[in-house]
Design brief:
The complex is a heterodimer. Chain A is an alpha+beta fold. Chain A is built from 13 helices and 10 strands. Chain A starts with 19 loop residues before the first helix and ends in a 24-residue tail after the last helix. The longest helix of chain B is centred in the middle third of the chain and has 13 residues. Chain B is an alpha/beta fold. Chain B has 3 domains: 98 residues, Beta Barrel (Elongation Factor Tu (Ef-tu), domain 3); 109 residues, 3-Layer(aba) Sandwich (Rossmann fold), CATH 3.40.50.80; 86 residues, Beta-grasp domain (Ubiquitin-like (UB roll), Roll). In chain B, the strands form 3 sheets. In chain B, strands 1, 2, 3, 4, 5, 6 and 7 form a 7-stranded antiparallel β-sheet that branches. Chain B has a 5-stranded parallel β-sheet with strand order 10-9-8-11-12, sandwiched between helices. Chain B starts with 18 loop residues before the first strand and ends with a strand. Classes of the chains: A alpha+beta, B alpha/beta. The complex binds protoporphyrin IX containing FE. The site of protoporphyrin IX containing FE has 22 residues of chain A, from strand 6, strand 7, helix 7 and strand 8. Protoporphyrin IX containing FE binds next to strand 6, strand 7, helix 7 and strand 8 of chain A.
């Protein structure tokens, strides 16, 4: 299928919007009417046709705009992209993984031609064409990780694996849900997860790490995570909290449906062959409450999840103060009918709102 | 696949696809060690890997299916051919004998995707390798990987005799200044104390060889004040033969007799039950299994379980450990 790339912004006038296709394939993260942290991981080996799970690296209508936003963030703050010296090999691993995946999965958009170590990369949507020597940094305009992640949607944590732990030793992080690469760089799995409530006590991180350490080449995994964002902002970083934190106060009962967004991250995990590192791409999908309400099942369920979410989670995710206003809005879309199991909207089988 | 994973199912290890190969060359190196080279059957290229990685080789030996881990020793960047070097173990259960005696050029076999439990620490200013005997194999790949980026390394390699010095000639010819060889039969031995003393800050030490050597090197490094995180070792245990014993699998409702030359893991797999694994050598921890009931003595041989777990009799690593007694019931 051909993708029409949106001309839109994630800042200032917020002209971001989702087409019908984007709404239909939005990764609604709740498979039942309540939510708690869990080790929700599964293989990342494709998925239903046209779903965000189908390709290794999903490219959608927001591609060009997201890359433009990333360039703006980097221009303001180069520390959003960092790679400790021993991580260059992992950077090449990542470049190889993405170039091969994208050129195989989207041959009409991306081409990779390899002649030994002489590589030729064509990115048609962004109008980029480069000849370079694989593993020779001097032949690219940026380091390998920065080069390829300026052309790929989502944030990237590149982890070194040693001492039975993972270390955040490189990354490109411009679209994060309120955490900072510059703060976390060099930390290990338990250190950077320290702020998360409840999950440590439940032993989730210990088991999750064990799982990640054994991820094999050619057998990537994935999970979903979610939070809330006011206005379709990609860059909700601590560095810029002074800019976006105050926007939460612009919510009113009238504008909440269009301003309040559910922010879902598709997180994937790939073993990197040459470095034995791990890459953790975090791909962000935004959808306004009002768009979510166009799916009756999602409307019913979102109300119940937000209503019953433990206070610790609502606090950590930063919407405890606005929860009452959110619930006033969402309650209008919950008629108390049961919902079908699973994340899919089931548009054809779920009843429309009975109110 | 229909939907993202439902809540709170404990993760299973996710297996990568297996690779079907044909044996493309068999090169005897000396009386004990032979190199086996593989090409893919499907015409694709092999995945690149990182030095220190191993592959699990599946062997159909009559009715028995064996799966043994071997370090990949070819150039990690080389995607046409994979190579392993195998030392014949006349006392073992027969995996290496099968390769040495029954496998011929042109045979088809199955390999796992590469897995690395013995990675280079890429932060190291210098990599100091200590090898004993067949323990040279992971270093062969690591040396090639480092050479491609002009890495700083030094090898100390101890062999029984010049006749049994696998790859000594090749290593010395290419890297005269970085390679040091010691022959047991000439009473040469590594002067470990001085070697460890003279290393620049930021050096990482790697040892692979017989158990005695690994223990010696790790102990010496610890008493010389080396941080644990700078000392790496790899020791895969081959499962040992032993007295047959019976086991019941509670979840699957099946029972099986573990044969003398079979591991507990292999017996479980024979029933069609497939515990996850990466190494099959007591190191990776994947096949850890809960013991529900037992009456007898555990023969724990793995490096994974803590001592208290071993003595409590509530866990077993079926890849290398055995049991001697009347009743054994596992949570599989
Ligand atoms: C190596 C891969 C991973 C990286 C780099 C990573 C990174 C992070 C970071 C930076 C945060 C934000 C922490 C903060 O508040 O400062 C976070 C949150 C979290 N992570 Fe991970 N993580 C990884 C894997 C996982 C896995 C496998 C799980 C599985 C359970 C997990 C569960 C969570 C949870 C539950 C949160 C809180 C999220 C929320 O409520 O919004 N993470 N992670």
């Amino acid at each position: 299928m051909t993708i029409q790339f949106n001309d839109e912004t994630f800042r200032d006038d917020y002209s971001f919007s989702n087409s019908q296709r984007a709404k239909d394939r939005f990764p609604f993260p709740f498979h039942e009417d309540s939510y708690m942290y869990s080790i929700n991981m599964e293989q990342h080996q494709g998925g239903p046709a046209d779903s965000i799970y189908e390709k290794r690296f999903d490219v959608d209508e927001h591609y060009i705009a997201e890359m433009r936003d990333r360039a703006l963030v980097l221009a303001d703050d180069p520390l959003r992209c960092q790679s400790l010296p021993h991580m260059t090999l992992a950077g090449w691993d990542l470049l190889e993984l993405i170039m091969i995946s994208k050129s195989e999965d989207y041959p009409e958009l991306f081409e990779l031609h390899r002649d030994g170590s002489k590589w030729h990369w064509i990115n048609k949507p962004m109008g980029i064409e480069d000849h370079f020597v694989f593993m020779d940094e001097t032949t690219l305009p940026y380091g390998p990780m920065e080069y390829i992640t300026r052309q790929t949607q989502g944030d990237f944590c590149v982890l070194d694996q040693r001492e039975d732990n993972l270390w955040m030793d490189a990354g490109m992080v411009t679209t994060q849900a309120d955490w900072s690469l510059d703060f976390d760089i060099g930390m290990n799995f338990f250190e950077w997860h320290a702020p998360v409530p409840l999950a440590h006590e439940k032993g989730i991180f210990k088991r999750a790490l064990k799982f990640l350490l054994s991820i094999q080449q050619g057998a990537p995994a994935r999970r979903l995570n979610w939070t809330m964002t006011v206005n379709p902002l990609l860059d909700t970083s601590p560095e810029n909290y002074h800019k976006w934190g105050v926007q939460k106060n612009s919510l009113t009962p009238e504008n909440l449906g269009s301003k309040q967004h559910l922010r879902v991250e598709l997180q994937t995990f790939f073993r990197l062959p040459r470095s034995n590192g791990l890459v953790f791409p975090i791909r962000c999908y935004l959808m306004s409450f009002q768009d979510i309400m166009s799916k009756p099942k999602w409307g019913r369920r979102l109300h119940r999840v937000v209503r019953d979410l433990p206070e610790e989670l609502a606090t950590y995710k930063g919407f405890i103060d606005k929860r009452p206003m959110m619930l006033d809005f969402l309650a209008q879309y919950d008629d108390g009918l049961p919902t079908s199991f699973g994340v899919w909207p089931d548009d054809h089988s779920e009843p429309s709102l009975q109110k | 696949m229909t939907a993202p994973a439902p809540n709170s199912t404990a993760p299973k290890s996710i297996g990568a696809e297996k690779i079907k190969v044909i044996v493309s060359a068999i090169v005897p190196l000396n009386n004990l060690v032979t190199r086996f080279e593989f090409k893919r059957i499907d015409g694709y290229q092999f995945p690149t890997f990182s030095g220190g990685a191993h592959t699990v080789v599946e062997m159909q030996d009559g009715d028995l299916k064996r799966s043994n881990p071997y370090s990949l020793m070819s150039d990690p960047a080389e995607t046409e051919t994979y190579a392993i070097s195998v030392r014949r173990d006349d006392q073992g259960r027969g995996g290496s004998l099968f390769l040495h005696q029954k496998v011929q050029v042109g045979a088809t076999m199955t390999l796992s995707s590469p897995v690395n439990l013995f990675s280079l620490d890429l932060r190291a200013r210098k990599h100091l390798f200590v090898a004993g005997g067949i323990g040279i194999t992971p270093f062969m790949a690591q040396i090639k990987q480092l050479d491609a980026v002009h890495g700083n390394w030094e090898l100390h390699y101890s062999c029984r005799s010049p006749e049994l010095g696998s790859y000594v000639d090749e290593l010395c010819a290419k890297h005269a200044h970085s390679v040091n060889i010691y022959y047991d039969d000439k009473k040469q031995s590594i002067d470990l104390e001085n070697l460890l003393d003279g290393q620049p800050i930021g050096t990482h030490l790697y040892v692979c060889g017989p158990k005695g050597m690994i223990d010696w090197v790790r102990r010496s490094a610890a008493s010389a004040g080396w941080p644990d995180a700078h000392v790496h070792h790899e020791e895969f245990l081959a499962p040992q033969p032993g007295k047959p014993f019976a086991v019941r699998l509670a979840k699957s409702g099946l029972s099986v007799e573990v044969g003398e030359h079979e591991s507990l893991l292999e017996a479980i797999e024979r029933l069609g039950v497939e515990p996850p694994y990466l190494c099959r050598g007591g190191a990776c921890g994947q096949c850890e299994t809960d013991v529900l009931e037992s009456e007898g003595i555990f023969i724990h041989r793995d490096h994974w379980l803590e001592d208290d777990e071993k003595s409590s009799g509530i866990k077993i690593m079926p890849c290398v450990s055995r049991f001697d007694g009347k009743i054994l019931v596992l949570d599989r």
